[in-house]
Each structure stands twice: as C-alpha cells, then as structure tokens.
C-alpha cells in the first residue's frame, strides 16, 4: 500500500510476498483511514460539549476512563524497535504461534513472507501501527487460535487468486482502529470513540479484542464482496462502517455482544 492510501501491490495467495523496504525503527505513516465516523443515538453518562472554535463535540470522561485512555495511548506511542529484546521476543512468539511446526531461521528471513509481511524483515512493516500492532496479532493468535489460523492460511470461503497479505493487513487494521476511535486525542471527538472508552474502562484488553473482531469482520466482508487485492481499501471502508454501526447499537454492554464477535472461533 502506498503512502497515499492506495491499493496493495498484487499478492499471490500462496507466497503473499510484497516488495517494499524501510528502516528498522518504525515511524508513523498514512494507511487506510476508512470512512467518517457514524454518529448514532446517545450514550448514557457521557456529555458532549461544543466549543465555538471547534466544529466537533468533545466528550467528558470519568477519571477511570481518562486513566484507561492514557494507558492505551502509552501503548500506541511505542514504535517497533528491532534493537529491543522485548520486541524481538514478541516477534519470535508471533512466528511460533503462527507456524509452531516450523523453526524460524532468523528475525530477518524469507520465511516471514509466508505470514504476509512485505519482505524478509517484518520490522519494516510496523511503521503504520507500531509495537501495538504486533501485540494485537499476538493477542489474536493466543486467544482465538482457530480464527487466527483460518485467516493466516486463508482456509475459509472461496478465495481470490490474489489475496490480501495477512500480516500487513493486520497492521492496517490496528491503524484504522486508532483513527476510527480517535485514540490519539486528549478526549474522544466522536460518539464511537466515547462509546469504546466505556468498554475500555471495563477491560484493559478491549482494544485487543476489538482488533480480533475487526480482523474477522474484514475477512468476512472480503469474502462477501468477492474481493481481490485492488479492492482492499473498499473492504476496509466497508468494515469500518459496519463496526461503527455495531458499536452504537442499543443495549450493547460488552464487546462480546457485538454481532460480529460471533464470527470468531477459538
């Protein structure tokens, strides 16, 4: 995907290797942003305030919500750094979760292309999502191993000859969620973002769980639309719209009650 949010380079489903180089230390970048926030009916215990100088509302947060948001923001601020042992071990753990039967020959290896990284060094692909995108993938692999493997190996549905690369798509999903939920703002400026903080204050793994739901929903949309690599942006925008609508459904008190959660299997 180019820096303007364009389509992925064509990727064969079996090899899934793409061509792009980058530096070891990841930085921010523009990737798929999706559609504008979908505003629905009101949220209890959240107050929207408009400032004359700001066209968008600002949502007041409880002290607990503020603390949870700051903790999540501290995770988002961590760039992937291949010189940090913790980051190296997380990357090895991801490989072991994805391919337990195959020994990894090195953190820089052609083997990574089998997971859907764009080259032999996956650290070059974290520029859009940072270390949290690796944490998201690990959470997915550990908590929903069947769904993780189904998406990794493209085991469900009538697949396209040219498929989306699994790992790079995962990084895009992390970035899309950060933007959709307005997580880098001091306070959320959309009802979707304010609604998510309610879930986050009740579970510190809410972002990771929403990531799993979103990844599975994206693949479901991909299959429903009979998409190929040129359709990736369209699929991501459709996924975002559906997720926004589900987050604002009435009587949803836990992420596990979202309709798309039922797509996941352990």
Summarize the structure.
By secondary structure, the chain is mainly alpha-helical. The chain starts with 47 loop residues before the first strand and ends in a 19-residue tail after the last helix. Strands 1-2 form a two-stranded antiparallel sheet.
Description:
A hairpin with an 8-residue loop joins strand 1 (48-49) and strand 2 (58-59). The chain has eight helices and two strands, in the order ββαααααααα. Strands 1-2 form a two-stranded antiparallel ribbon. The protein is mainly α. The model is unreliable at 1-54 (pLDDT under 50).
Number of helices: 8
Summing up helix and strand content along with how strands pair, one would put the structural category as mainly alpha
Mean pLDDT: 82
Based on Cα principal axes, name the global outline: globular
Give helix % range.
Answer: 40-55%
Instruction: Please give the order of strands in the largest beta sheet.
Output: 1-2
> Low-confidence spans: pLDDT under 50, at least 5 residues?
1-54
Strand content: under 5%
Largest sheet: 2 strands, antiparallel
How far is it from the N-terminal to the C-terminal residue, by CA? Answer: 30 Å
């Amino acid at each position: 995907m180019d820096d303007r949010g364009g389509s992925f380079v064509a990727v064969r489903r079996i090899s899934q290797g793409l061509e792009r180089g980058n530096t070891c230390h990841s930085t921010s970048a523009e990737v798929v942003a999706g559609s504008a926030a979908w505003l629905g009916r009101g949220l209890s215990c959240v107050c929207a305030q408009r400032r004359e100088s700001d066209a968008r509302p600002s949502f007041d947060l409880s002290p607990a919500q503020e603390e949870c948001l700051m903790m999540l923001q501290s995770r988002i601020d961590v760039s992937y750094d291949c010189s940090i042992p913790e980051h190296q071990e997380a990357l090895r753990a991801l490989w072991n979760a994805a391919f337990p039967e195959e020994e990894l020959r090195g953190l820089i290896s052609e083997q990574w292309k089998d997971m859907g990284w764009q080259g032999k060094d996956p650290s070059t692909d974290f520029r859009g999502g940072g270390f949290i995108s690796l944490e998201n993938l690990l959470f997915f692999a550990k908590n929903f191993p069947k769904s993780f493997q189904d998406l990794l190996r493209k085991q469900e549905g009538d697949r396209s000859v040219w498929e989306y690369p699994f790992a790079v798509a995962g990084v895009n999903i992390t970035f899309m969620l950060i933007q959709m939920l307005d997580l880098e703002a001091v306070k959320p400026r959309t009802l979707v973002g304010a609604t998510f903080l309610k879930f986050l204050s009740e579970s510190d793994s809410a972002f990771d769980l929403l990531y799993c739901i979103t990844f599975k929903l994206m693949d479901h949309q991909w299959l429903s639309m009979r998409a190929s690599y040129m359709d990736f942006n369209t699929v991501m925008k459709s996924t975002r719209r559906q997720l926004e609508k589900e987050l604002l459904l009435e009587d949803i008190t836990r992420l596990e009650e979202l309709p798309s959660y039922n797509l996941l299997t352990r």
